[in-house]
Amino acid sequence: MIKSTIAKTLLAVCILGSSLFASSEVNVYSHRHYDTDKQLFKMFEEKTGIKVNVVKAKASALIKRLASEGKNSPADVLITVDAGRLFQAKSQDLLQSVNSEYLTKNIPASLRDEDNKWFALTKRSRVAVYKIGSGTEKELSTYEDLANPKFKGQIVVRSSNNIYNQSLMAAMIAHNGEEFALTWAKGVVANMARNPKGNDRAQVKAVANGLGSVAIANTYYIGKMVHNKDASQRDAVKKVKVFFPTFKNGGTHINVSGAGVAKYAPNKANAIKFIEFMASKDAQKLFAEGNYEYPVLAGVKSSDLVSSWGTFKDDTISINTLGENNAKAVKIFDLAGWK
Ligand code: FE
After folding, report:
1. 93: how many CB neighbours lie within 10 A of its CB?
2. How many angstroms does the Cα of residue 31 sit away from the middle of ligand 1?
3. How far does residue 196's CA lie from ligand 1's centre (Å)?
4. How far is the CA of 11 from the centre of ligand 1 (A)?
5. What is the mean pLDDT of the segment spanning 114-125?
6. Contact of 32 with 81, CB cutoff 8 Å
7. Residue 54 phi, psi dihedral angles, 5° rounding
8. Which residues pair with 127 in a beta bridge?
9. How many angstroms does the Cα of residue 81 sit away from the middle of ligand 1?
């Protein structure tokens, strides 16, 4: 009897303990690899007293982990740097709908999941970068035209394993169909200055060093190179400029970094608070000023540097389409021999 009372008391203490513990933390699985995020997590902790525990890995690894952990997953929030991966997490039933007046009111419908299973936190455009003085800007126009043989030996772009490229291809498919997209990919491969290697910054550096004349990169990397500790990045980026291509029948390719609440989040309320904070004015300002991304919250401006590159019209293809067409995009890259 005494034993069972002690056992019950212990159990009660454990439950109380874990719920107390649970109420003051949020577990974030994040693929964002930027310094601003550390600052944002700290700001959130100071504001709410909720501790942020972060697991950083590639989105594909985090999604696999969420799936294998199932109901036992400690994850509360999944953050990715691409809409395709958010879509994938949703398709695998790893996220849950969120009922947040703040998020539905402030994040445009085009930038969140239709079931509110994820929300964009920032936008980024995938652009062409050319060397100043090369005359290349006169040649640049649409994404479709990057397959034009006039660019033979001129294009540097990272591997097709990369989700940013997969989403660009997904948008190409949405605009022009699979057959055209395959022909396009073959054309771009034929125009490459080298086999794909390195990240977006490596492509910018290549163009700055005269290897090819057009690099494909996400906008914020340009900002990160301008303000970099590494002189080789600062020097390289001085030699280039941003050009905003458009789809023939659309705008400039936009992708998002976003977040969703994990299906079995043990700290659901904290998870929602966390995402609301990331979409708050202060956080959006930091995304814009510190990581050169485009804010999603109306009224928050891009950084002066980002604004200096000019304006563009967002492509109107739904962000969801980038995920829906991902498998087709991967297949087309393979068929085209885009390494
Ligand atoms: Fe990135």
Report:
1. 10
2. 9
3. 17
4. 45
5. 96
6. yes
7. -115, 135
8. 217
9. 6
> What is the Å distance from ligand 1's center to 114 Cα?
25
Q: Residue 220: its pLDDT value, please?
A: 95
pLDDT score at 230: 96
CA 195, chain centre distance (Å): 24
Listing DSSP states for 197-250 in one string gives -S-HHHHHHHHHTTS-SEEEEEHHHHHHHHT-S-HHHHHHHHTEEEE--B-TTS
Q: Which helix (H) or strand (E) holds 290?
A: helix 281-291
User: Ligand 1 centre from 291 Cα, in Å?
Assistant: 10
Rounded Cα distance between 166 and 171, Å, is: 9
User: Hey, which residues does 95 pair with through a beta bridge?
Assistant: 262
Alpha-carbon distance values, 70 to 47, 95, 116, 264, 321 (Å): 31, 11, 20, 8, 26
- Say how many Å lie between the CA of residue 174 and the centre of ligand 1: 23
DSSP letters for 63-78: HHHHHHHGGG----EE
Cβ neighbourhood burial of 302 (10 Å; 0-12, 13-18, 19+): buried
Query: In one letter, which amino acid is 283?
Result: A
Residue given tokens 């977040």 in the structure block = 259
Percent share of the chain, pLDDT over 70: 93
Angle at 218 between CA 333 and CA 135, to 5 degrees: 90
Token pair for 67: 């799936």
What pLDDT does 23 receive? 65
Question: How far from 31 is each of 21, 86, 139, CA to CA, in Å?
Answer: 25, 11, 35
Strand pairing class (77-80; 254-262): antiparallel
Pairing type for strands 214-218 and 119-131 reads: antiparallel
Q: Ligand 1: distance of its center to the CA of 314 in Å?
A: 19
For residue 117, the number of C-alpha atoms closer than 13 Å in the C-beta half-sphere is 19
